[in-house]
Known about the structure:
By secondary structure, the protein is an all-alpha fold. Helices cover 39% and strands 3% of the residues.
Amino acid sequence: xxxxxxxxxxxxxxxxxxxxxxxxxxxxxxxxxxxxxxxxxxxxxxxxxxxxxxxxxxxxxxxxxxxxxxxxxxxxxxxxxxxxxxxxxxxxxxxxxxxxxxxxxxxxxxxxxxxxxxxxxxxxxxxxxxxxxxxx
Length: 136
């Protein structure tokens, strides 16, 4: 029995046509990606001026956030602080219960330097009382 290959029946033109079609599609996709990359990497020059500074217009009444900010600012202008509260007997009778903290190791001098296992100076701190630098 003689077997006929698909190329004998069709002339193998379909394989070449599909191959050419696939090449054209891949080529168009690559061109599209290059164009999109160029567009996004190039940036939009109209967004920011060459100086890098952006000017905002706060005079416009169509910005709700600006109006809210201006309203709060106007309310703060009406606030008056009286300094006489700092001289009252109640304020002067307050007691400071803060504690003095003991000095603790603050870490390495250069935290980005690789750690050497033979290095002895892992942490150093300054003693407040005698102002000397010690290492554990």
